[in-house]
Fold these 2 entries.
Entry 1:
Amino acid sequence: MTISEFKTACETISQEYKTKIAQAESLAAVEELRVAALGRKGALTELLKGLKDFSIEDKKTAGPLGNALKAAFFAAKEINDELNKTELDLTLPGYPVAKGHRHPLSVAQDRMTEILAHLGFEWAEGPWVEDEKHNFDLLNIPLHHPARDAQDTFFVDSKMPLVLRTHTSNVQSRYMEKHKPPLRIMAPGRVFRNDSLDATHSPVFHQIEGLYVDKNVSMADLKSDLTAFMKGLFGNKAEIRFRPSFFPFTEPSVEVDVKCVFCQGKGCNVCKGSGWIEMLGAGVSQRAEKLRY
Ligand SMILES: [Zn+2]
C-alpha cells in the first residue's frame, strides 16, 4: 500500500462512518459502528496494521492521520458514554406548566349572569357595607322584623347604623332610587350573615337576584323567565316545579325546585330523599310599592 492509497483509505473510512453515524437511530447503533471500525477485525484496525510496512518517512505522515481518525471514533464513544450515563433524552417533551383555573363561584356566576343577560336583565351593583335604610327599611323589613336580629346580621360598629349587607337586595333599593321603571336588573354578589359554618351555612356566601318592574308584568313572566333560566343552567331536560311560599317582601311568593340531578328524582342524600332540590325563592315584589313605584 502506498502512502497516497493509505490517505484515500482513511478518507473513505472517515466519510463512510460519518454518514452511518449521522443516520444511526440509537446509541446502541452508534456503538455497533464504533466496534465495526475499531474492533479487533474493524476496518480502521485493519488499515492501521499496514502502517508497520511504511518507511520511517511515510510513517511520519501516515501515523498522525491514522491516530486522528482513531481519536475521532473514541471522542464519539465518550459522547455516547456521557449520554448513556445522564440518560438525557432530548426528544422528550418538556414538563407541563401549571395553568390554574377559574374559581367555581366565578364560573357559576358568569354562567347565571350570561343567561339573565340573554333574558334582558342589566347588571347592577351595590355596596357590601350598607346602611339599615337600604338593607332593611326600603325592603319592607321594619325595625321589629326578626331578620334584623343580631344573630342574623353583622352590625358594623360606627356612629350610624351600618351592616354588612345580608342580601343583594340592597341593590334593588339603591337602583330604584335612581332609576324609574321600566327596569330589569340582576344583582349578583357577596352577602354576609352571622351563621356558623357547616355543610349548608357560611357567614359569607353569594346570591344573585333579578328584579323586573314594568306595566303588564305578571307571575306568568316570572314563571317563564325562571323556567328559561333554570333550563339554561341545568339543561333543556331539567324538570322544574314551583311551590307556593311566604316571604315578607313578595306577595304571592314561590319557591323553585329542580329535580335532583344526582338521583333523577329517586331520592338521595343530596336531596334528602325528596327527589327535588330547592334552588331559589321568588315572587311579585311589594318593594316597588314601598318605594312608590
Ligand atoms: Zn337526589
Entry 2:
Amino acid sequence: MTHRPARRARCASASPLFTPHGTDRAARKAARRQLAEAAAKARAETAPHPSGGDEAEQEMPSALFPPRGRPGPASARGGKLKLPAHRMTTATVAGAYPFLAEGGLGAEGIYIGRDVHAEASFCFDPFALYGKIEGFTNPNVLLAGVIGQGKSALAKSFALRSVAFGYRVYVPCDPKGEWTPVAAVLGGTSIALGPGLPGKLNPLDAAPRPPSVAEADWAGEIRKRRLLLLGSLARTVLGRDLRPMEHTGLDVALDAVVTHATTAGCTPLLGDIAAMLNSPDDLDAAGGLMSGRLGDASRDLAHAMRRLVHGDLAGMFDAPSTVAFDPRSPMLTIDLSRLGGSGDDTALVLAMTCASAWMESALSDPHGGRRWIVYDEAWRLMRHPALLQRMQSQWKLSRGLGIANLMVIHRLSDLLTAGDAGSRGRALAEGLLADCSTRIIYRQETDQLHAAATLLGLTSVESEAIAHLNRGRGLWKVAGRSFIVQHQLHPQELSLFDTDARMH
Ligand SMILES: Nc1ncnc2c1ncn2[C@@H]1O[C@H](COP(=O)(O)OP(=O)(O)OP(=O)(O)O)[C@@H](O)[C@H]1O
Ligand SMILES: [Mg+2]
C-alpha cells in the first residue's frame, strides 16, 4: 500500500462545521472562520508545486477534464483509433434511445403540440394512423390524469381542430356544461337537460332507415335497440341483472306500446312503457298464454321505470323530442350540468344512457363521415356495468362506422371500480382499455403509479415520468410507442377552454 502523506494532509477536518444546537453567535462565527482557514490551507497545498513536488500527487487526475477529454492513452483520443461511421434508421435509433430519437408519427393529422424529447411538432390523427403503425388496431383514445391537468382542454382541442378536417364531434354527456361554449363557437348544437328546462329527448325515437336496409329488417333493428335501452335503464336502477320473466315483461310491454302508438300515429314514450308495466292485468293479457304471472314478476321493473317518469328525471326523457337530430351539425353536446345530483351518479348515468340511445341513430350511419365521441368525466360512469356494456358495444363498432371514442378518466384505478376482479363490470372496463390503441397519461398521484404501470405495461422510466408531468404535458402511448407531448393552446383556445376562471 502506497503511503501518501501529502494527500492525507489535504483532507480538512469537518469538526469546525459541527456546531451543536444552542451554540451562541460568536461560537458559530469562530467555527466558520476556522473552516474557511482550513479550506484555504487545503487549496494552497493542492495547487501544483512549481518545483515538481510529490510524484504520486502529479499523477492524480484532475476533477474536471479539459475540453479535449480525459488525458492519457485510455482516452483513445490520440488520433490513432479510426472507426467507420455507423448509420442506422431512425426506427433503430428510436429503439436504442427511446424518447430521445423517436421517429415521430408523421405530420398527418391535427397539431397537438411539442414532442418534448425530440423537440419536434407532434401531430395525431387516429384515422390516419390506422393500418400504418403496427399494433394500432382501433382509433379509440383513453385519457387519464389528476384534476386540473388539462384533460378536457386536450379533448376540446381535438374537437376544435378536427372540425377543420371535416370530422364531427358528439359529447353525449357533459356533466359540467363546459362543452357548450365550444359547440357555440363551432356552430354546433347543445341540448341542456334538467328539471324545468325546455329541452327533451325521447330515447325511443326511431332512427331514420338507411336506404340500403329493407323496411322489415329496419323495424327489427329498431325493436332490438329499444329493448337494449330499456334493459340498460332497468339494470341501472335495479343495480342487478334482469330475471328471465322481467325480460319477457319488457318485451311484451314494448310491443304493446309500439302497436298502440303506431295505430294512434304517435311515437312511443317511456311513460307509456312504465304505465303498461304498472298494470299487471294488461301485461298478462298482452303476454297471452305463455306469460304466466308476468304482471307480478314485472313489479320491480315498474318501479324502476317510474324513476324516469316521476322521479328526479321526470319530464326529460318521457316526452316527444324537442330537437331533431341534425346529422350535418359539426358538433352536438348534451349538457347535463343542471341535472341536479342525488348523491350518487345514477341520474347522470340514466340521462347519459337515454342521450346516447337518442344519438345512436346518427352514429350508426356508416356514411356519416369520421366522428369523435367524447366521454368527458367518464370516471363517474365506471361503476355502472349496464352503461359500460353499451359503451363497449359502441367501441367494437367504431372501426366499421368511422368513429373514434375518447374516454376521460382521472386515474387508471377508476377502471377497477367497475367491479371486483373477475366480475362482469371489471371485465367490461378492462375490455374498454384494451380497445384503446392510444393511451394518454397526464400526471398521476404517486400512489397510483403502480396501478398505472400494471394496467398499461409502463416501463420504470415511463412511470417515473408520469409522476412529474406539468399541466398540459402527457405521456402518449400510441400502440406501444412512447412520447412526452406538451399540448399547446392557441390564446383563443385558452380563453375558450378556461375552467379556472372562478379560481382567479
Ligand atoms: N396545455 C395547456 N396550457 C396552458 N393551460 C392549460 C393547458 N391545458 C389546460 N390548461 C388550463 O388549465 C385549466 C384546467 O384545464 P382542464 O379543465 O382541461 O383540466 P381537467 O384535467 O379537465 O380538469 P378536471 O379533472 O377538473 O376536469 C384550464 O383553465 C385550462 O385553460
Ligand atoms: Mg375536465
